[in-house]
Specification:
The protein is of the alpha/beta class. It is built from 11 helices and 10 strands. It has an 8-stranded parallel β-barrel with strand order 1-2-3-6-7-8-9-10, surrounded by 4 helices. Strands 4-5 form a two-stranded antiparallel ribbon. The structure holds NADP nicotinamide-adenine-dinucleotide phosphate.
């Protein structure tokens, strides 16, 4: 198994993370159905059988139903828990009677959310609690206290971040006693800003790029695991109907299919192998609820693209030669 930064803390973590956002029906407040439960059960067992033991949640997914259905599976099969690493996120709040949709990284909300997450998931502890998005009102000392309390109570083992840039990560890290072991960011072939930021360094043509310089390098230097969300680009390069998509997407998908044939593998695995080839040691989060697609993703771990293949995919996806 490839050595990842996260192995320093969680030595048995799988190289892929299963993203649970698609479990629990859909984004509404309808109650969970037996069909939702059956789907979650089948997916969880398949993910574990595929040697993926890392599960990514958030308190908001499907208005809490993703965690709820996962917790129902755990309640009926408690022995599954010991083979799982469970991560969840907090800090995004829906509009409610006290205010608009907002971010909330106050100590009080972090602790309240964690209690609710644990209750929904039917588990005594989280392996990793992640702050979902930066909150302009976040106070590092207050977060540090909340993390210290959650750690001392045994409710959370490790802590991490999501969608935070280098300065936010460093700002929080200097106040928080526990290591921040994860930063989960949108990195994919359809959101290339994480690469464009580097290749356009000092070039005014790159002024449109929105990714904060140094974020990946900071993570690497500080043993912070980069996890990528949106890794599969919602299937755009691996079988989704793209006949109405721009020509650049179609050409990229064609080349990925050609490479999949060369390697005798799936297009999903080429898409993920492209992320895995990057030296920041990305741990992709895969969000498919389709059993065949989950198996197809797993094949990525056996593929190492050449430098030339990696660049060909990148150039096709960005739709222009490198500057
Ligand atoms: N930290 C954050 O802010 C953040 C934000 C978003 C997501 N996440 C995490 O990242 C995970 C993955 O994110 P994601 O779902 O946005 O990205 P993704 O993994 O790129 O895409 C998964 C979605 O694409 C669909 N899909 C994949 N291949 C397909 C194909 N060939 N044809 C049709 N549909 C296809 C899947 O449908 P099927 O289920 O039918 O395969 C699923 O809805 C989530 O589950 C969540 O854990 C984190």
């Amino acid at each position: 198994m490839k050595k990842l930064p996260i192995h320093q803390y969680l030595p048995h973590a799988s190289e892929l993370v299963y993203g649970c956002m698609g479990l629990g029906g859909s984004w509404n407040k309808d109650p969970l159905t037996q069909k939702d439960f059956m789907q979650a059960h089948q997916v969880i067992e398949h993910v574990l059988d595929s040697q993926i033991n890392f599960f990514d949640h958030a308190d908001i997914y499907q208005f809490g139903k993703a965690e709820q259905v996962f917790g129902k599976v755990l309640k009926e099969n408690p022995s599954l828990r010991e083979n799982m690493i469970i991560q969840s996120k907090c800090g995004i709040r829906f509009e409610d009677k006290s205010g608009p949709a907002r971010y909330d990284l106050s100590g009080e909300w972090i602790c309240e959310s964690t209690n609710n997450i644990l209750a929904r998931l039917n588990t005594e502890y989280l392996d990793v609690l992640v702050l979902h998005r930066p909150d302009p009102l976040m106070d590092p000392e207050e977060i540090a206290q909340a993390f210290a309390d959650l750690k001392a109570s045994g409710k959370v083992k490790y802590f991490g971040l999501s969608n935070m840039h280098i300065s936010q990560a460093a700002y929080l890290a200097q106040a928080i006693e526990q290591p921040l072991i994860v930063n989960q960011l949108e990195l994919s072939l359809t959101n290339l800003n994480w690469l464009e930021e580097g290749v356009f360094a000092g070039n005014p043509d790159g002024s449109h790029v929105n990714f904060t310089s140094g974020t990946l390098e900071y993570a690497r230097r500080n043993d912070m695991q980069i996890q990528s969300w949106g890794s599969l680009s919602q299937g755009l390069f691996s079988g989704k109907d793209i006949s109405k998509e721009p020509i650049g997407i179609q050409r990229t998908a064609e080349y990925i299919k050609t490479l999949a044939d060369v390697y005798n593998t799936s297009p999903e695995s080429i898409v993920l192998a492209w992320l895995l080839r990057h030296p920041s040691a990305v741990q992709p989060v895969i969000g498919s609820t389709n059993i065949q697609r989950i198996s197809a993703c797993k094949q990525a771990l056996a593929i190492k693209l050449t430098r030339e293949q990696w660049y060909q995919i990148y150039i096709l996806a960005r739709g222009a030669k490198l500057p």
